[in-house]
Amino acid sequence: MEDAATSSRASWFQATARQRVEGLLDPNSFTEFLTPSERVRSPHLQLFDLPSAFDDGVVIGRGALDGKPVLVAAQEGQFMGGTFAEVSGAKMVGLLRAARDHKDLPQTVLLLMDSGGVRLQEANAGELAVAELMRAIAQARSAGVTVIALVGGRAGAFGGAGLTTATCSRVIVSEQGRIAVSGPEVIETNKGVEEFDAEDKALVWSTDGGKNRRLIGGADTFAEDSMAGFRAAAKALMAKVPAFDLKTMQAEQERLATRQKRFGACDDAVSMWRILGIKEPEAIRDMDSKEFAALANSIKEANHDAR
Amino acid sequence: MQTLKFRHTAKRRLSGKKQNAIIGVVASGNLEVLLERVLPDAACEVNIVTPLSGYDETWKAVFAEFVEQSSPGGLLISINDGGARPDTVYLRLMQGSALMEAE
C-alpha cells in the first residue's frame, strides 16, 4: 500500500517517528523490538496525571537500508517533545549496548533524533539515560559499530539529544533540523535577551539550524527534507566512517579549539559564514538544498574526519 | 486520568489477517490508537485513557458510530488520548481499522 506520508517525497519534518522508519528503510524490512502491544510504558507519567504512550515515544528495531542490515531508534518529537526518560532512554541505550556486544546484530545504528532533551517529569532518569546513551555510543563506536544521527524533526536535537548527536560517528541534518544544547528560550532566560533573542526566529534558525551546523562542521551531510533525502544521505555515510581512536579524538579536540578561536567573537551565523570565505553569506538562507549541499561540500571546515 | 471501557458486538468479524496496528501520536489534539485482533468472534472492546473528564457520552457515541460503520469484530482497541476532538478520534479509528484490513 503506497502511503503519502511515507512516500519518498514525503516531508521528514512533518512525519511521525513510525512514518520516518518506514520511509527510510527498505519496504517491509523493519522488525520492531518491544512493540506497542508489549506496553512498555513510562511508570511515572500517570503520577502527574499525564497520558502515556505504548512505546514511550521511541521506536526501536532492525531493518535494511539499500539491502544493508541496520539497527534503528526513532524518537517521536510530538510525544512529550521526544524527551529522554526512564523507558524511552533505556530503549536507546539497550539498542546501542546490543550492537556493541553482539556481532551477529547489524553493526550500523541509525538514530533518528527528534527531542527537546530530558523529560522534566522524569528528570533524574532522563539525565542518567543521556549519560548512559553517550557512553554506550562511545563504547559501540570503539567496538567498530557505526552510529549515525539523523536530525530533521520538529523538536530538533536539543539538550541531551544535542549531546548525543555530537557523540555519533556521523551526523545528517536538514534545513529544518536544529542541533544545540541549550534551547533559545533557555539561553534568553539565563543570559538575557541581549545575548540571544528567542523571539527572533531568523536569528534562532540561522544559528541552530541545519545550514549553519553543516557549514561549521557540526554535521557531515546536508539532506533535503524528505524520506528520499535522508535515505540517500544515510546510504552514502554508512559506506565509510572515520576510525574511533585516539587520533580521531585529538583531531576533534583540535577542530573544536580552532573553531572556538575563529568564530568565538561572532554574534550571528552570517558573520561566521563570512569568515569561512563565503562570498555572499546573506544569500545562504534562501539557497535550495542542492545548491547549498554543493557549497557546503566545497568548504574546508565543513568536511573533516574528526568526531 | 479518566478511563473508559465500552463493549460491543459487531455485525461481523473484521476482514484481513493483520494482528496489530498502531496509528496516531499522543500529542495535543491527537491520540494514539492500538488495535489488536485478540477477541473471539464479533466481540469488540475499547479502553480509553484520557486526561479530560466529562466527555463519556461523546466517546460512547463516536465509538458506536465506528462499530456501526466498520464492524470491527475481534478487535481490542486501546486509546491513549491527548485531548483529541471527536472528528479526529473517528478518523484515527477508521485509519486503524483500514490498516488491520490491509493485509
Quick tags:
heterodimer, A: 307 residues, alpha/beta, 2-enoyl-CoA Hydratase, Chain A, domain 1, seven-stranded mixed beta sheet, 11 helices, 7 strands, 13% strand, B: 103 residues, alpha+beta, Ribosomal Protein S5, domain 2
Protein model, in words:
The complex is a heterodimer of chains A (307) and B (103). With 307 residues, chain A is an alpha/beta fold. Chain A has a domain of 200 residues: 2-enoyl-CoA Hydratase, Chain A, domain 1. Helix content of chain A is 39%, strand content 13%. Chain A has 11 helices and 7 strands. A 7-stranded mixed β-sheet of chain A has the order 1-2-3-4-5-6-7, with helices on both faces. In chain A, helix 3 packs parallel to helix 4. Chain A is globular. By secondary structure, chain B is an alpha+beta fold. Chain B has a single domain, classed as 2-Layer Sandwich (Ribosomal Protein S5, domain 2). In chain B, 31% of the residues lie in helices and 33% in strands. Chain B is built from 2 helices and 5 strands. A 5-stranded mixed β-sheet of chain B has the order 1-4-5-3-2, with helices on one face. The model of chain B has no long low-confidence stretch (mean pLDDT 96). At the A-B interface, loops of A face strand 3 and strand 5 of B.
